[in-house]
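REQUEST ID: PR-0412
SUBMITTED BY: lab tech R.K.
PRIORITY: routine
TASK: structure prediction, single protein chain
INPUT:
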Amino acid sequence: MDYKCYLPKYLSPTTGEKLFKDISMFPDNIDNRLYTNIHEDNCFQGDGIKQLPVIFLPENEIKHAPVLILSNTCDISALNRRYLPPFVLYTPLIPLENYIAMLRDAKICSEKISTHTTEIKRQAVSQIFYLPPHGELIESIVFFDRIVSNHAASLPSPIHQSRLFSLSQYGHYLLLFKLSMHFTRLAESFDREY
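STATUS: complete
OUTPUT:
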């Protein structure tokens, strides 16, 4: 498959070649290459934010947790005018060790947990996005089926003071790929007759 035809066209030749090189080494390079340093006061898709409110219905308790922003950058930008105030979509960052402990508590055998953990770290589990440790971020995962919707006005300001990390071009590309696999699989094995 020629991945170059699927790369963003707005990238500089140098950035495009670096992204292509990183993609060609996948999945053996899921490391700090997923991150970049952004100091802008703008919230980007794929940013890790230190704390936002999280709730999982039908529970009614609101907790605050670190999260990964899933909304498109332009959809939550304050610079874009709209008729209704925008909402932001995000999902909690869960320490990988907490998830593994939960599997152990559920009496899943250690061999299955080990295999599952390896698959997670290779980005092979469609509903889970793996994030290696970086700066203040400990090794974490997010579930694409645990999404929260909230007013974009709830985002902290200035955002750069609450940002845990920002994804690099490569990290963002992986996130988009995983999101598209989770939400838009064409091979659902069901004939939707006309």
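NOTES: The chain has one domain: 11-182.
REVIEWED BY: pending
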